[in-house]
Amino acid sequence: MVQTEKERKAKAKESRDKPENKAKANRRSKEFDSKPENKAKAKERGKTPEYKAYQKEFDSKPENKAKAKERKDKPENKAKEKKRRATPEYKAIQKKLKSKLEYKANQKKYASRPENRAREKKRVEKIRLKVLQYYSKHLSDSDIPCCWCCGESHIEFLALDHAEGRKEMDSDTKLVKLGYSSRLISQGLVNWIIRNNFPEGFKILCHNCNMAKGIYGKCPHEKESS
After folding, report:
1. Contacts of 51 (CB under 8 A, 6+ apart)
2. pLDDT per residue over 25-38, tens digit each?
3. Which one of 101, 126, 203, 220 has the largest count of C-beta atoms within 10 Å of its C-beta?
4. pLDDT digits (tens, 9 = 90+) for 110-164
């Protein structure tokens, strides 16, 4: 009598589920996983985005969550976990993590104090002024920070302009070697400029001229003077 596909699968499952066959399969799996080359392959595979996505989806399924909890709650697994947590390596990792979290919490608490917020604001303004003064002096020939285009000198209205365009400057090899990236913005960009001794490629514009240049490619003031 010829077996149907359904019957064949049922018989194969019955054979796999026998305790002696399960034990054999587990031994073979452990032997395979314990080989250095297979360990290395598994480690590399575990780093891939595809595997991480698959694992995340697998772990989020209710039935798999229930199975994971069941395994975790087994007395022998609880004993293993307790033993693992008692090792010096685990304690060292936890201590490092705890100190890092405490440090971040303390930093946040310190930064939120009114006196420290005021001090930080002054420091940021001082650094910004230094950058404005440098590029105004070298490009606008002025001792007072001002817009290269229209001459606006109110510091609150001034902005740092990327002469060739923020993203376009990603292809400037000199700047890239210094660590420039179009992702650098605001205070991060100002700090980078000072660390790299005021590189070329930047000038000071007021917000109006800067915005007009970004939208129209050229400020109306430049058209008037041409």
Report:
1. 45
2. 888 888 888 888 88
3. 203
4. 888 899 899 989 999 999 999 999 998 877 677 789 898 888 989 999 999 998 8
pLDDT cut 90: percent of the chain above it: 19
Q: Give, rounded to a whole angstrom, the gap between the first and last alpha carbons of the chain.
A: 97
Sign of the dihedral defined by the CA atoms of residues 77, 80, 86, 89, in that order: negative
Return the closest-CA partner of residue 165 out of 226, 224, 218, 220.
218
Spatial contact of 161 and 202, defined as CB atoms under 8 Å apart:
yes
148 backbone dihedrals φ, ψ, rounded to 5°: -60, -25
CA dist 6 → 2, 11, 12, 53 (Å): 12, 9, 10, 32
Cα 59 from Cα 70, distance rounded (Å)? 14
Q: Please report, for the chain, the start and end positions of each structural domain, with discontinuous segments joined by +.
A: 115-225
